[in-house]
Amino acid sequence: MVRRTDPRSARDSLARIPLFAALSPDQIAALDAACSWRRVDAGAAIIDHQDDGTDVFFVVHGHVRVMIRQPGGQSVILRDIGDGEFFGELAAIDGQPRSAGIQAVTAATVARMPAATFRRAIHDHPPVADQVLGLLAGQVRMLATRVTEFSTLNVRHRLYAELLRQSRPDPREPAHAIISPPPIQADLAARISSHREAVSRELAALTRAGLLDRRRGALVLLDPARLRQLVEEAYAGG
């Protein structure tokens, strides 16, 4: 469920959004006043793929997910968006239908800004424009990587690449990497365009091979360098 909230709480302000860090309090207040504010329940759809709206949404609190539903009903997860981030900027810039759907993973507070206000903020404030350009460049690079993976790698190696992408160095053991909290297998499958059963099978194979361990609250990649090598070999052989 998506609920409009008015008035906002004292914590609900675009001052929490890094995109606007260079703006003055008065400039932030003007943008706050131009937005409508929503409380979103976990699991609620915020926008749907191919919707024709052009507003931009800022996540003040919470965690949402970018997804595309394929014709057969299977969903592909493109990326997650957390506190301080935003979505909907592509439609605000080009006026085209939404390129993906957005679903709340947790309860969230979002500010909904009209496209004209967003474009004016870009035109009037070069630091805002630079950040938006950087974000768009990052999205292009991310999507190029995903397309290459889908077209070149099989499910096994796509899973390896996704595990490496989600991991970070293990503070207990520098040679290891961890993913915490551990990802849900269905979510991993949606990220690599596969099925939960295939992911479960490949995770079990990694465990038997001594490349993966399950720690309370985390997955541990015991030899991330070896996983990276396997992905690189798959690219070379593809």
UniProtKB/TrEMBL annotation:
The HTH crp-type domain, residue ranges: 153-225
Pfam families linked: cNMP_binding, HTH_Crp_2
UniProt keyword annotations, A-Z: DNA-binding, Plasmid, Transcription, Transcription regulation
MF term (GO), any: DNA-binding transcription factor activity
InterPro entries xref list: cNMP-bd_dom, cNMP-bd_dom_sf, Env_Response_Regulators, HTH_CRP, RmlC-like_jellyroll, WH-like_DNA-bd_sf, WH_DNA-bd_sf
Gene Ontology CC annotations of this record: cytosol
Superkingdom of source: Bacteria
All copies of domain Cyclic nucleotide-binding, residue ranges: 19-122
PANTHER family assigned: CRP FAMILY TRANSCRIPTIONAL REGULATORY PROTEIN, HTH-TYPE TRANSCRIPTIONAL REGULATOR ARCR
Protein name: Transcriptional regulator, Crp/Fnr family
